[in-house]
Design a protein that fits this description.
The complex is a heterotetramer of chains A (520), B (308), C (287) and D (616). Chain A has 520 residues and is of the alpha+beta class. In chain A, 28% of the residues lie in helices and 20% in strands. In chain A, the strands form seven sheets. A seven-stranded mixed sheet of chain A has the order 8-9-10-1-11-21-12, covered by helices on one side. In chain A, 59% of the residues are buried. With 308 residues, chain B is mainly alpha-helical. Chain B is built from twelve helices and no strands. Chain B is flat. The model of chain B has no long low-confidence stretch (mean pLDDT 82). Chain C is elongated. Chain C is an all-alpha fold and 287 residues long. In chain C, helix 4 packs antiparallel against helix 5. Chain C starts with a helix and ends with a helix. The chains are: A alpha+beta (520), B mainly alpha (308), C mainly alpha (287), D alpha/beta (616). The complex binds adenosine-5'-triphosphate (2 copies) and magnesium ion (2 copies). One magnesium ion binds next to helix 16 of chain D.
Chain lengths: 520, 308, 287, 616
């Protein structure tokens, strides 16, 4: 986080400009995406959290136990915590939250999936709640750290989805005062705040009196606003602005890569040409990622050679597999039968061009990333790949994916812990949900991988779990199902007036509980 | 007069009906499922039950014709329905957004008028050089894309000079750049029109007559010429409204201003049918009102129209 | 009214008002020169910029304008002058095609309204009124969302959005020509309907269309670039001006040249088209 | 036919002798001319309601003047170096108080430029040189704009040529008239209003209370002209420059305006009257100066100059006046021979077929228009006309009386609501256009606005070739390009146009040339009937004369039947055998020209005739 020089000052209004889409609902139970996580971190809290070493630490739950068979977890809640509407935090409240997440009417996706193995909940006592599982879940605690499973006031939830969406009620250091659509959410200090996570810098209410949470989709305007002092913090900072900011001393940079998967290009192994591992490897070898990353990100991102974010302790880096080697790529294609080239220089086989359909979601990729794809397109062309980049809005992009109309795709996935591997590479993830959504874009369909993932999910022993995930990663990486690029970028730029801000070690959302501004 | 009014009203109702119909079916054609939009947008891993529940609740499981008729029925009673994505009634939502956009558009129209007037007046009195500079400026201004101009203004006034905020801020300062962005190209168009008609007026015999009575240059301009020059520009203001709304989409996005334009862009991309139809209806009503207003303004400004 | 109608209207007014000028004014000469440059760039861009507009060179990214790269380089080290030159063809084709579509539709609608009697005229007029009540950008947006983004859709969208304007001008022109004294004079001379249509009405209606088309191209280029800016136009890394400008905006605070030059070309193209259209109008009138 | 010609000849004499013209007024200004300095000052003072008004002040301080306006060696030009290519050069004259000097001359001779220069408004790019230029005794050469402004409207008033558009259509006329009061006096609003009403009354627009709130669009042409004059004389300037005050007006209104000018003159105002119409000038001017190509070529007392013109230009102009010139008299005289009978009218009638053959017949024509407010207007209300072969039927009537509408019905350009048109005895209006097409070649038309009757894209050659080819097709003759070309040249020759004009577009022709191309086009099919709608009203008298002569000649040579529409009684009287007078859509009187002009029966016709100005 940013360094706190001097004594914190109470009061003041912090202005935050988000480049992410404006949430359609401030309650992250509904749906469950990153923009919701960003803002809800300020007013909602989870049962547990994670520290910067990846250890689970207490938050609303002060302690927890796992039954020996791994099928029951008991969480003891902090005493004396109340939601901002006065409702006390108790076992019943947690139960209500779980029920809310699992209610189809809520329309939860992220939280709903994370609770897939929870069979039921029981109130052991007023402040002890028991989760009864259908299967052991090694990822349960990690899942519970996420903002999408934060605990909200049952009274609030009872108001109905629409009202709750407009102003969810939590236990956090701030509470939602108002939300002007298309413009801003105003958050004010929760004066009765008592429940900081274990790794917070102070106790008691937050220093800031107010946060104005704005939505400024245009990155140039966002940075200009920060420079002009009209906002104090921006997210989704562009590499060039980060470099520019780091040169001066009026803006500080907070780099907080997201957990879960790395940013990567997944190669669709279910259909030609990438059903041939040789072609997959050739594509990966033909792509000059290193040069692209260094020129486009100007040192703000480091190359990844892993399926997992570098934040994850279990991440396996395999630089040996992902080096740029055009000559090797040529050979691989030759041996895969793509020997001829057409007049434009693309490889052809049986009259078909070696075409790679690459739909790009404009909503999910920052411009630098789209430029990166363009550069990969240019280098892969030398080897003879015709990479067709098609920018799409989110709906069309999901539709294209659902129709299996892609060969390569880059999709972010944020989840705390290595359990993300199960979501991304388990063959169950190939079958689309009713909405057409699926996560296994590489369409890895390997029983060995499935078996390893299933085992890892039930194991809670850290060492054993890590070993299993290492095996999975190696298998996937060696199968050339994906081309890792870099960690999921998550850069905040803060005016140097802001002290004490940090990113949560859970999903790297910023928290302004410890933050303060100098007196006017 | 009552006959004219009735015809006008019937015309307005027809336009509104057609606009609503076109929009309704056009949105149907867009790939993507509104039920998903309701459940937190595309990519949400919703359960089939949830989808079914939502479809039933919003009547999306009905045949299209039924939905269409239901939509028309609601519109006829002034009910714009409920936003899928924003979980809010459309009418109050849009009313909230309307203010910002109207303010922006109105200010831009005023500023554009001022610019155009000043430029037209100046370029018709300063001789050849002023003429060429004036007409050149107008043609260039009219050719400026909003997004490029906005960027240039931000770089100049916010980044380099640091005078004005690059985003909307509570005070009037935050309005300056968005208004300029919208006003400059419009001023280019209005200016061209005004200069032409100003010249026509200045060369007309009635101005010569006024001079022969001893009227000075200023009197001639203010008492005679500008009024004539403003007539064609007034008749353009209905068109200007439409172009300002189009421009607002870009300007509101760049300057992070809440408003109809931005709402519309968001709503269209997430297939939020009620909001899109709502915005389109409001814009159509605005357009119709604007044409009535321009007619009225012309009627006031031009007594020749009053005679019949 | 549309921007086009205004432009057309202006041309009509501009007759006697301008200061007496030489045969070819400075502005016209400049416009013609730039138009020539555009044509060369569109037909044979390699003459102006021999390089490959898509060739990346990550190591020389973000270079400000210099002798080797007149307009600087972009984030992937591509030469912006090369890209702008090679993009001319695409951008102009979008502009010209969109104008052709708009004009074509406008001719069909306008002719129907102007020639086929009152009922058709009434219907077409109501239809146009409805189209006018849609802001042009929204119309384009809907088209693009229905048919998916891309160059072709953007072209069609711009064409559709500009069609009502053309239709109205053409209808007005037709009606005024049809009821003009010289058509009556031809009737008195005993001309048949067809002869009058071919000899008088069509030529006098179509001649202004050249002017309209010229004026329209400039506006269409601006429109198409606005769609590209919203991410709904040409796909990357195509060297289309609007797309380049949109990409360049991201880097506006650190690399202004990336957005400046494509924007400059859009503006210059529109200005050139307007100036030439006006000049053409004058010529036609005084000829 | 013969009896027509006789009747006209007789009439001509009656007109000359009886002189429906010079009345008391005429003699009155003769008196002034004899004593230019005599200015009845007392009248002015009495007239001014404000004793401290500028005119009163002026009257008190200014010594008797010899000259209210003094111009010596005036030269004016546009663009370029001062002194090069002048539009007006070497112009000198004086005007005394109470005197009227008329500046006459053909179109483009520099009359308006001279007038504008005298008030410092020659134009932005104009240069002006003069040896002397004095108004009211003080030098106005080299006045600054601000100094000029203080004089305009107070020392000198100008009434512009384009009266119909010289009042701001967006302002009430009351304000326009009060402008000079506002600019040059300290009168308060109420006083200004009183004065405006006085002035309006003087120009013959009483009922000032409602008038002042009307705008120029709500006034008729004559009312506008008078309001404009009112705005120029609001401050009673001692010098008034009036440019073509009557050109656009009906004779009746014209007479009112001339009366007004006379009364101004009587009250001591010095007037510079510009016109190309000598008949108008003759009624009011004391002295006349004739301009040609920017110079004054002849000058002298009005009576003398009109009676014995010396300069060729003057003679041509006087000859061109159609009034009281018998039928068959040449009006245009390129050789300078006025009044030379071209040929005996009788010889023409000899070649004509039986006199009573009816070629064009209209019965009970009705045409109703719907006004924008929904009410109906009967533009033509039961009009019946009969045109005999080889004769001319004149249709007169004031503006808006339905003449053009009638012509359009006759030509089947619009469909009558009732009634029928028959051409050469066959139904014309009641049949389809396809059936009509066979009769079309027999019926030619000449339009009031010749320019807009030509396709702007086509050259003269193309226009005529189209017509020739159309006529040939109609006659089902085979033909070739060479034959067509020969015919085109023949037509051109008939209308006395040189073949060099063939490549030109109508836009670049002069008014007279255009009108003649129009006639040539109409003649291409050798029609038996020509409908001419105001063929000369937009033309200069000299050009008008050429056109009228041409029509006359054609009738004589080819036995054409003409329907001649005009609001100009002079033209009608000169050129027609029979006359129909139209008023508000109905024909109020018809008869032989001679009979109608000598013994008008209908009061409207009587009032029209009474208003015609004559050369003294
Ligand atoms: N502002 C001007 N710039 C250039 N030439 C002009 C200008 N005004 C008048 N002229 C020219 O000066 C000449 C005299 O024009 P003027 O208007 O005085 O003629 P006029 O005798 O009043 O003719 P008319 O009887 O048609 O009114 C014409 O050839 C005209 O083209
Ligand atoms: N197409 C039309 N629609 C409506 N009213 C018309 C139309 N044509 C003529 N009128 C009206 O009919 C009346 C007669 O017009 P017309 O043109 O026949 O007069 P005119 O005698 O030719 O006058 P002028 O001498 O001014 O040419 C006028 O009041 C005119 O306003
Ligand atoms: Mg004149
Ligand atoms: Mg007429």
């Amino acid at each position: 986080g940013t360094d706190a020089g001097g004594t914190p000052v109470k009061g003041g209004t912090l202005s935050y400009a988000s480049g992410d889409a404006e949430p359609t609902c401030l309650d992250p139970h509904v749906g469950g995406n990153y923009p919701q996580a960003l803002v809800s971190t300020q007013y909602l809290e989870s049962l547990v959290s994670r520290d910067s070493n990846g250890q689970i630490i207490p938050w609303l739950a002060k302690s927890w136990t796992e039954s020996p068979d791994g099928l029951a977890w008991e969480f003891t809640l902090k005493d004396g915590v109340t939601f901002t509407d006065g409702t006390p935090l108790d076992a019943a409240a947690v139960q209500a939250n779980v029920a809310h997440l699992r209610d189809p009417k809520t329309g939860s996706s992220t939280g709903y999936l994370a609770l897939a193995k929870v069979a039921s909940t029981e109130a052991v006592s007023a402040n002890v709640v028991r989760f009864v599982l259908s299967q052991p879940d090694g990822a349960l605690l990690e899942s519970l750290t996420q903002p999408w499973l934060a605990i909200e006031s049952p009274t609030g939830l009872a108001r109905g989805v629409d009202e709750n969406c407009a102003a969810p009620v939590g236990t956090g250091p701030f509470q939602v005062e108002s939300w002007e659509k298309q413009d801003s959410v105003v958050l004010v200090r929760n004066a009765g705040y008592t429940s900081p996570p274990a790794d917070a810098d102070h106790t008691g209410p937050a220093y800031l009196a107010k946060i104005i949470w704005r939505f400024i989709p245009d990155s140039a305007s966002r940075f200009a606003a920060l420079q002009a002092g009209d906002v104090d913090v921006i997210d989704n900072a562009q590499p060039d602005t980060i470099v520019q900011a780091e040169k001066g001393d009026t803006i500080t940079h907070l780099d907080a890569p997201r957990p879960g998967a790395s940013n990567r290009i997944e190669l669709n192994s279910s259909r030609p040409p990438f059903n041939d591992p040789l072609v997959r490897e050739a594509f990966i070898r033909s792509a000059n990622v290193d040069d692209a990353v260094s020129s486009l990100f100007q040192g703000t991102a480091t190359r990844s050679y892993s399926a997992l974010s570098s934040v994850e302790a279990t991440a396996v880096q395999r630089p040996d597999l992902f080096g740029y080697d055009a000559r090797a790529a040529d050979k691989l294609l030759d041996s895969a039968g793509w020997t001829a080239r057409d007049s434009a220089g693309y490889r052809v086989k049986d009259g078909a061009r070696l075409t790679v359909q690459f739909p790009v979601s404009t909503n999910q990729s920052i411009p630098a990333e789209q430029s990166l794809f363009e550069q990969l397109q240019a280098t892969a062309k030398k080897t003879g790949f015709d990479v067709v980049l098609t920018p799409m809005d989110l709906s069309s992009w999901y539709t294209a994916l659902g129709e299996n109309g892609y060969d390569a795709v880059s999709a972010p996935y944020t989840k705390v812990g290595p359990d993300v591997l199960r979501i991304l590479f388990d063959s169950a993830g190939i079958v689309p949900a009713p909405s057409g959504y699926f996560a296994n874009h590489a369409q890895v369909n390997d029983p060995a991988v499935d078996a390893l993932l299933a085992e890892a999910a039930t194991v809670t022993d850290a060492g054993k779990r890590a070993a299993l995930y290492t095996d999975v990663q190696n298998k996937v990486l060696e199968g050339f199902y994906l081309l890792p690029l870099y960690d999921q970028q998550n850069h905040y730029l803060l005016s140097s007036r802001v002290s004490g801000a940090r990113a949560m070690p859970t999903v790297s959302t910023p928290t302004f509980y410890d933050a303060w501004l100098p007196a006017e | 007069m009552p006959g004219l009014l009735a015809a006008r009203l019937a015309g307005a109702v027809f336009v509104l009906w057609a606009v609503a119909t076109i929009t309704f079916f056009a949105i149907r054609l867009i790939p993507g499922d509104p039920a998903e939009a309701i459940l937190g947008g595309p990519g949400s891993q919703t359960s089939p039950e949830a989808l079914a529940a939502v479809r039933a609740r919003y009547g999306l499981d009905q045949p299209v014709v039924v939905q269409y008729l239901a939509q028309l029925g609601r519109l006829a009673t002034g009910d714009l329905g409920r936003s899928y994505a924003l979980r809010q009634d459309v009418a109050p939502l849009l009313v909230g957004q309307l203010g910002g956009t109207l303010l922006l558009a109105a200010l831009a129209l005023v500023v554009a008028w001022l610019f155009a007037l000043v430029l037209a007046t100046w370029s018709t009195r300063g001789g050849r050089f002023a003429w060429y500079l004036g007409s050149g400026l107008e043609i260039v201004a009219a050719a400026l894309p909003h997004f490029w101009l906005a960027t240039a203004l931000i770089v100049l006034f916010s980044v380099w000079l640091g005078w004005l905020p690059p985003i909307s801020t509570p005070g009037p300062a935050g309005l300056v750049l968005p208004v300029l962005t919208l006003a400059v190209p419009l001023a280019g168009f209005l200016g061209q029109i005004m200069r032409e008609s100003l010249l026509t007026a200045l060369e007309s015999p009635f101005v010569l007559s006024a001079r022969a009575r001893g009227e000075g240059d200023r009197g001639v301009r203010w008492i005679h010429a500008l009024r004539h020059a403003s007539l064609p520009a007034i008749s353009l203001s209905g068109w200007a409204f439409g172009s300002l709304i189009s421009g607002a989409v870009v300007v509101e996005t760049i300057f992070a201003r809440p408003g109809l334009g931005r709402t519309m862009l968001n709503a269209v991309t997430v297939r939020d049918v009620p909001v899109v139809i709502g915005v389109v209806m409001i814009v159509a009503v605005g357009y119709i009102l604007m044409t009535v207003l321009t007619d009225l303004a012309q009627w006031i400004a031009d007594p020749r129209l009053r005679r019949r | 009214m549309s921007d086009l109608e205004i432009q057309a209207d202006l041309g009509r007014q501009a007759r006697a008002r301008e200061p007496r000028r030489r045969r070819i004014g400075v502005a016209e000469a400049l416009a013609a020169a730039f138009a020539l440059f555009l044509v060369v760039a569109a037909v044979a861009p390699s003459i102006l910029a021999p390089g490959d507009p898509l060739a990346i060179d990550p190591l020389s990214a973000f270079q400000p304008p210099n002798l080797a790269h007149w307009f600087g380089t972009d984030e992937s080290g591509r030469d912006i002058f090369t890209r702008v030159s090679h993009g001319t063809g695409g951008s102009l084709v979008i502009g010209i095609l969109a104008t052709a579509i708009g004009l074509g539709l406008g001719i069909v609608l306008g002719t129907m309204a102007g020639m086929l009697g009152r009922v058709v005229d009434f219907t077409v007029n109501r239809f146009l009124e409805v189209l006018f009540a849609f802001p042009g950008l929204l119309l384009a947006l809907l088209v693009i969302l229905v048919f998916g983004p891309g160059t072709q859709t953007a072209t069609v969208a711009v064409g559709l959005a500009t069609a009502p304007g053309y239709a109205r001008i053409i209808r007005g022109q037709l009606i005024s020509v049809r009821s003009s004294a010289f058509v009556e004079a031809a009737t008195v001379l005993g001309r048949g309907r067809r002869q009058i249509l071919v000899r008088h009405i069509l030529p006098n209606t179509l001649a202004p269309l050249f002017v309209l088309g010229t004026l329209g191209i400039g506006q269409a280029v601006v429109w198409a670039s606005a769609l590209s800016y919203l991410g709904l136009g040409a796909a990357p890394p195509a060297a289309e001006w609007g797309a380049m400008l949109s990409a360049g905006r991201t880097y506006i605070t650190s690399a202004w040249w990336m957005a400046f030059f494509p924007g400059l070309f859009i503006v210059l193209t529109a200005v050139t088209a307007t100036s030439l259209g006006r000049a053409l109008e004058r010529r036609l009138r005084h000829a | 036919m013969g009896c027509h010609a006789l009747g006209r000849a007789h009439l001509h004499h009656v007109g000359l002798v009886d002189g429906l013209l010079p009345r008391a007024v005429h003699r009155a200004h003769r008196g002034h001319r004899d004593e230019p300095g005599a200015r009845p000052r007392t009248t002015i003072e009495a007239r001014m309601s404000q004793g401290t008004g500028p005119a009163a002040r002026r009257a008190a301080v200014t010594p008797p003047l010899v000259s209210m306006l003094r111009v010596r060696d005036l030269a004016v030009g546009f663009g370029g170096q001062p002194g090069t290519d002048p539009v007006v050069a070497g112009v000198s004259f004086d005007i005394a108080p109470g005197e009227c000097l008329a500046l006459v001359g053909e179109s483009g001779s520099g009359k308006s430029v001279t007038a504008r220069s005298l008030i410092g408004l020659a134009g932005d790019d104009a240069w002006l040189q003069a040896a002397e230029l004095e108004i009211n005794g003080s030098d106005v050469l080299g006045l600054s704009d601000a100094q000029w402004r203080r004089r305009r409207g107070r020392d000198v008033g100008l009434v512009l040529q384009d009266a119909l558009v010289s009042l701001d259509p967006l302002r009430p006329i009351g304000r326009e008239i009060a402008d000079s009061l506002r600019l040059h006096t300290t009168l308060d609003r109420a006083a200004r209003r009183t004065r405006v009403q006085e002035v309006l009354e003087r120009v013959g627009l009483p009922d000032g209370r409602t008038r002042v709130r009307q705008r120029s669009g709500e006034l008729s042409g004559g009312q506008r002209q008078r309001a404009l004059i009112a705005s120029a004389i609001a401050l009673d300037p001692p010098l008034l420059l009036i440019d073509e005050p009557t050109t656009a007006l009906d004779v009746t209104v014209q007479a009112q305006i001339l009366d007004l000018l006379e009364s101004l003159k009587r009250h001591g105002t010095a007037i510079l009257l510009i016109s190309h119409d000598l008949a108008v000038v003759g009624r009011i001017a004391d002295r006349i100066a004739v301009m040609s190509a920017g110079r004054i070529v002849e000058r002298g007392p009005a009576a003398r100059l009109l009676a014995s013109p010396k300069h060729e230009q003057t003679r041509r102009m006087i000859a061109a006046i159609p009034i009281d010139k018998p039928r068959g008299t040449r009006l245009s005289s390129p050789e300078g021979r006025a009044d030379a009978p071209a040929s005996a009218p009788a010889s023409a009638s000899a070649s004509a077929p039986a006199p009573a053959e009816l070629v064009l017949e209209a019965s009970g024509l009705v045409k109703t228009f719907r006004r924008p407010d929904g009410s109906e207007q009967r533009a033509v209300d039961g009009v019946s006309l009969r045109l005999l072969r080889g004769t001319t039927l004149g249709l007169v009537g004031e503006s808006g009386s339905g003449k053009t509408t009638t012509a359009r019905l006759l030509l089947a350009l619009s469909r009558p609501d009732a009634g029928e048109v028959r051409v050469l005895g066959r139904p014309f209006s009641a049949v389809t256009e396809r059936q009509r097409r066979r009769l079309r070649p027999e019926l030619g038309a000449i339009y009031q606005d010749a320019l807009s009757s030509f396709d702007p894209r086509l050259s003269v050659d193309a226009v005529l070739r189209d017509a020739v080819r159309g006529a040939r097709h109609a006659a089902r003759q085979a033909g070739n390009a060479a034959r067509d070309r020969a015919r085109v040249l023949e037509l051109l020759d008939q209308v006395s146009l040189p073949a060099t004009l063939l490549s030109r577009r109508p836009l670049s022709l002069s008014g007279g040339q255009r009108q003649r191309v129009g006639i040539a086009r109409a003649l291409a099919s050798e029609p038996q009937i020509l409908v001419c709608d105001e063929p000369v009203s937009s033309l200069d008298v000299t050009v008008q004369a050429q056109v009228l002569d041409l029509l006359d000649e054609l009738q004589r040579e080819r036995g054409l039947s003409l329907l001649l529409i005009s609001h100009d009684l002079g033209v009608i009287r000169h050129a027609s055998d029979q006359v129909a007078v139209m008023l508000d859509g109905t024909i109020v009187e018809t008869g032989d020209t001679a009979q109608v002009f000598t013994a008008p029966r209908h009061p409207y016709t009587q009032s029209l005739l009474a208003a015609v100005p004559r050369l003294g």
